[in-house]
Amino acid sequence: MGRWCVALVLTASMATSSAALADDSTWHTYAALRNDAFTDLTPPLDDQGFTHDNAFSLVRTRGDLGFGGRFMHRWLTSNVDYRRWDQLEVVSLVEWRVPTPTIGDLPFRIDTIGRFGPTLGGNFGGRYLQNGWHSLSGTGPTLESGYLADDYPGDRRIGVLAGARGRLQLGDDRLQGYAIVDVQAGLGGGVSSFETVLGGASSARHLGAHVELAASRYHVSDDNLALPGGYGRGWQLEWRIGFHIAWSRFRVSYEYRANEGGSDEPIGVIAFESWRR
Length: 277
Description:
Blueprint: H1 9-14, H2 18-21, E1 25-35, E2 49-62, E3 65-77, E4 84-98, E5 108-122, H3 126-137, E6 157-171, E7 175-187, E8 191-203, E9 207-220, E10 234-247, E11 250-257, E12 267-276
């Protein structure tokens, strides 16, 4: 389906406003649609390759600790034939801001996130959801046209994933540089990965922007996740750029993400976030 992506639910979760996370007790809600239709201003698009994500997470933060969960439904389609596969993840999240001393006058912080839960593959309705999306939006083929990928080449599978992410930030919300290390193991299914990220961000009262460069490595135990145009095995270079609009405790953001999952395809992500006591 497309070519570039926003950031992962977890990346967005860690890039939250420091003022919001400092609240003694806060609900952080994140919801996103990721689709290559958001990377091109001239639809209809060639909907082959990495296709679409539905993502949602909810975290309750109290002091330096946060607990919650994340849901992601990813639709993958082959870019050479009519095979497709759904990736479904339902994981628990634990966030911890590591207490850190200041480095002179330079603001400094470390955030960590752990995740654990089932990962499933197979037919979980992606074919019909994508058909409905294309029928409404006109951004790709439909089942009626005969050109929408509709072949799930295997039975449903289930595995477990466990992962952790650390984010080190220098600077404040107005201007900052950061580094991220993310490690994930997919056991019996799903995706195993290692990622390092260098990024920078700047924000004013209501507007902000960021840019990231990432080196990533992927391994899939389920070959259906590596359909042509799906996850790419081995080392990958990815980059992302995005901006957001914020008011009160709400934020709407857009990110353009290159080579999502090593697929050589980009995805655009439109996301909504809120922080509420």
